Amino acid sequence: MKPLLPGLAVAITLAVTACATTTSPTGRTQQVGAVPQQQLNQMGAQAFAEYKAKLPQSNDAGQTAYMRCVVSAVTRQLPSNMQANWESALFVNKEPNAFALPGGKVGLYTGIFTVARNQDQLAGVVAHEIGHVVSRHHDERVTRQLGAQAGLGILGALVGSQYGSGAAQATQQLGGAAVQAAFLLPNNRQQESEADIVGQRLMAQAGFDPREAVDLWQNMIAAGGNRGPEWLSTHPDPQNRIAELRARAADLMPVYQQARAAGRTPDCG
């Protein structure tokens, strides 16, 4: 386990009280700012480095290029200050999972291809995860965690294993890291709904069919059987989510069509 970046623990402790109220992309009030954005980016980079050190990466050049093509198409639609230097990695793991981190990091598990069955569906996954970053959900969660536990020994390990019980167990084993929880434990339902909204628009702007987000989530539910995957437990009700995705897809068709007319026609394979 690598130590926190030099000075980061002190900076976080000093910044706990320097929170701000802002508005999310959907108009929701957020408390953010306990950690400066530059250091959030450093934390994201360190977490990503830990992932790459702990999990095997795929040797499938075709799948890796496919993933990077989709990530590139989506990130080109971000605000100019968020476009540069996105890094992605494909990890060998049968779970249909993905994540994005501050600092421009995207990780996908090879199992995601069992539910994201074309480039539009994969863009739905990638855009949703990037939607968490755009919406400052990591900032929000770090701020909330640090505010709740200011003064305690909460600056331990950044990275455990994967979402769900694995990450919770790793948090306990590695010393109760609030920062880790803020980065890797499942997002709450409000944040998930917001990432759906932001991500579905982002994929349409990139020239991916927003209607495919509906099929993607139907595939995800089917992959979990009656019980559903554990990592869906903190997500909005699946049927409500699908209904909302379907309604938004209809509204986003002009955005998608405009993107295609402007030459944004991804061909990732």
Shape: globular
Strand order of the largest sheet: 3-5-4
Q: How large is the radius of gyration? A: 18 Å
Instruction: Please mark out the parts with pLDDT under 50 across 5 or more consecutive residues, or reply none.
Output: 1-17, 150-184, 226-232
Number of strands: 5
**What integer is the average pLDDT?**
79
Task: Determine the fraction of residues in helical runs and give it as a percent range.
Answer: 40-55%
Spell the H/E element sequence. HEEHHEEEHHHHHHH
* Total separate domains: 1
Largest sheet: 3 strands, mixed
Which key terms come to mind for this protein?
single chain; 269 residues; mainly alpha; three-stranded mixed β-sheet; two-stranded antiparallel ribbon; 5 strands; 8% strand; globular; disordered N terminus; metalloprotease
Q: Would you write up a description of this structure?
A:
The protein has 269 residues and is mainly α. It has one domain. The protein is 52% helix and 8% strand. The protein has 10 helices and 5 strands. It has helices spanning 8-15, 37-54, 61-75, 119-134, 137-149, 165-173, 178-184, 189-205, 212-223, 238-261; strands at 20-23, 29-32, 87-91, 98-101, 105-109. The strands form 2 sheets. The protein has a 3-stranded mixed sheet, with helices on both faces. It has a two-stranded antiparallel sheet with strand order 1-2. A hairpin with a 3-residue loop joins strand 4 and strand 5 (105-109). The longest helix has 24 residues, at 238-261. The radius of gyration is 18 Å and the shape is globular. Belongs to the peptidase M48 family. Residues 1-20 form the signal peptide. Residues 63-248 form the Peptidase M48 domain. Its cofactor is Zn(2+). One of its GO terms (biological process) is proteolysis involved in protein catabolic process.
